[in-house]
Amino acid sequence: MADSAPQFKEETISKLLQQHLSNQKIKVNASALKLITELLRVFVSEGFIRANKEAASEKCPLVTIEHFEKILPQLLLDF
């Protein structure tokens, strides 16, 4: 069975961080980049799980953006 967990390339996360850091001289070391990538993976996985549960509670066969919008406030508070 294939691993269905989301995966993010560290290079992509690094480029996104550099784009949004206010000081371009700031560098993110390899350990911090791995941690940030893992936190992003957990965040996305948890969001999907919660949205899926919301859809199931409504007996909806598909997860829609509305399901995600319903769980987003609590998800952000939990992280």
What would CATH call the class? Mainly Alpha
Class computed from helices, strands and strand pairing: mainly alpha
The total tally of domains equals 1
| CATH architecture assignment | Orthogonal Bundle
Question: Can you describe what's shown?
Answer:
The chain has 79 residues and is mainly alpha-helical. It has a single domain, classed as Histone, subunit A (Orthogonal Bundle), CATH 1.10.20. The chain has 3 helices and no strands. It has helices at 10-20, 30-57, 65-78. Helix 2 (30-57) packs across helix 3 (65-78). The longest helix is centred in the middle third of the chain and has 28 residues, at 30-57. It is elongated and about 50 Å long. The mean pLDDT is 88.
Keywords:
single chain, 79 residues, mainly alpha, Histone, subunit A, elongated
How does the SSE layout of this entry go?
Elements: H1 10-20, H2 30-57, H3 65-78
Helix pairs in contact: 2-3
At a glance:
The protein has 79 residues and is mostly helical. The chain is 67% helix and 0% strand. It has a single domain (10-78), classed as Histone, subunit A.
